[in-house]
Design a protein that fits this description.
The chain is mainly α. The chain is about 45% helix and about 5% strand. A five-stranded parallel beta sheet has the order 3-2-1-4-5, sandwiched between helices. α2 links the parallel β2 and β3. It binds a DNA duplex through α5, α11, α14 and α20.
DNA sequence: TTTTGAGTTGTTCGA
DNA sequence: GTCGAACAACTCAAA
């Protein structure tokens, strides 16, 4: 290998899920060399196999790329777009640019780790300098372990341990010093990646989201200035805008957890909401650690005995759940919010997931797959962790008897039915005391509301008590039989 | 090694 | 309406 430190050859900066210019370790490292750099995004869904971006995340990705390109153009650079096998694209670019170095920020999905390891090895064999950095996590999985060296499997001790560790501040990127390579090699257009839907199911997305760096900065500002104080109370109220909604930005790296940590800490006055919010960042980190240490868990239960759980796959029930036609207003509201917004309130995620897995006995993997395709923040680590937790087969598994009651949850977290009325408008006319239990409405109430059950809104696909009893039985029997 | 305490997010029942 | 106990037993983490 040549002496890279003396080189003035360009650096190829490979953007992946770190679509930001602030707090970007790889970018700052490239700038510090003083050498010219070229930024590229490579569209290579084949290499992500079964976890290539779903429909909703593709929509987001399109806009995030447009935004990043714009930011780079404002600085006199651009975001090159290439399509195809990642390694081949990089090798070709290295030739075209006469580059000698490739920098990127690390990803942690098992498939990606395998892919990137091969790429790193091959490039180094060709004499290319390859450097990878952390920009996606506060604590990378390999840096956190118990005293005996094995990974944590319970959140609370994991997080207590993390809280004691020193944390890196966000990286101050010296954008003014950035030198972009002037020669412009061929770039595909972002729209040629066909990330946007061909039929316009994304109308509501545009009204809901600003998928840009500015959008992320605005939300973070709002979160810190006005949401943290009420977070402890408001975070569970379904129709309240009390959560940060930063998850899709975090997924694509338009904002990084270090930035969030710093901003929140600067405002920390010991309020419970602050601690609680940071713990949510902690859950994201914990999910990444689990994915890293237990790479099979995106498809297989962490607790191996669950491989034999007696799920009762049923296409009709699955469709009723997906389309928000289960007959349980709060469940249907959640599922329809997901469909329209590409996002669902966290509380609703738990309610709908519990309903699918427990009341309907559908495999958690089927639910996870649906979320993967419909969420703009679909993230392999968090999605997997959340579903395994709900199903009781993951880390920190909930006790088997914890079956969310969709009526009670509705009454508790959507007391006035605002959430239901917003997403299930056909129930608007029902009074508050019946909004979560339309099947209990008598003929007069239904007539007043202009509803015919079974025509305008479905009867419950299963009765709550019966569903609960069946779930408890399945989990109970299952436990009894697997003990031996 | 053994022991001890704890474990995101709940529900139901009966006093 | 409110409140505490029961729902079981197991695994994890640390002393």
């Amino acid at each position: 290998m040549q002496d890279i430190s003396q080189s003035s050859a360009p650096i190829l900066l490979w953007f992946r899920q770190d679509l930001r210019l602030k707090d970007n370790s790889a970018l700052q490292a490239a700038i510090e060399t003083g050498r010219p750099l070229t930024a590229v995004y490579i569209h290579d869904p084949d290499s992500e196999a079964e976890w290539s971006p779903g429909g909703a995340t593709q929509w987001w990705l399109h806009h995030a790329l447009v935004d990043l390109n714009q930011q780079l153009e404002d600085l006199g650079g651009q975001l090159l777009i290439r399509r195809g096998d990642s390694l081949q694209c990089i090798q070709r670019l290295i030739k075209e640019l006469a580059a000698e170095s490739v920098y990127w920020n690390r990803r942690y999905e098992p498939i990606i780790r395998g892919r990137d390891a091969v790429i790193k090895k091959r490039l180094r064999e060709d004499g290319i300098e390859v450097k990878s950095f952390n920009s996606a996590l506060i604590h990378e999985p390999h840096t956190i372990s118990k005293k005996d060296g094995t990974p944590f499997k319970v959140f609370t001790p994991y997080w207590k341990h993390c809280l004691k560790q020193t944390k890196d501040a966000p990286v101050r990127v010296e954008l003014k010093k950035a030198v972009f390579l002037k020669s412009a090699p061929h770039s595909e257009s972002i729209s040629s990646l066909a990330l946007l839907p061909s039929i316009s199911w994304d109308e509501q997305f545009y009204k809901t989201w600003d998928p840009t760096a500015k959008g992320a900065a605005r939300l973070l500002k709002t979160c810190v200035s006005s949401k943290l104080a009420g977070y402890e109370r408001g975070r569970d109220i379904l129709d309240e805008d009390a959560t940060s909604r930063l998850s899709p930005y975090l997924h694509f790296g338009q904002i990084g957890p270090r930035q969030i940590w710093e901003a929140v800490k600067a405002k920390d006055n010991g309020e419970k909401g602050t601690y609680r919010y940071l713990a949510e960042i902690g859950w994201r980190e914990f999910s990444y650690a689990l994915m890293y240490h237990f790479p099979h868990t995106s498809t297989e239960p962490l607790r191996p005995e669950f491989a034999d759980f007696p799920w009762e796959s049923d296409k009709q029930l699955m469709t009723a759940w997906q389309t928000g036609q289960t007959g349980f207003p709060v469940v249907d509201a959640g599922m329809r919010q997901l469909w329209k917004m590409g996002w669902m309130h966290n509380r609703a995620r738990m309610i709908t997931a519990s309903f699918l897995v427990k009341h309907l006995l559908q495999p958690w993997q089927d639910g996870a797959r649906w979320f993967w395709d419909t969420l703009v923040d679909a993230d392999l680590a968090s999605n997997t962790q959340g579903w395994q937790w709900t199903a009781g087969c993951g880390a920190d598994a909930s006790p088997y008897f914890r079956v969310f009651n969709p009526i009670l949850q509705g009454e508790k977290f959507d007391p006035n039915g605002d959430y239901v009325r917003r997403w299930v408008p056909e129930l608007t006319g029902l009074p508050n005391n019946l909004i979560h239990t339309p099947w209990e409405a008598d003929a007069f109430a239904l007539a007043d509301a202009g509803i015919v059950l079974g025509r305008d809104y479905p009867f419950p696909v299963i009765e709550h008590a019966a569903g609960r009893a069946r779930a408890l039985k399945a989990y109970g029997l299952f436990k009894a039989t697997t003990k031996k």
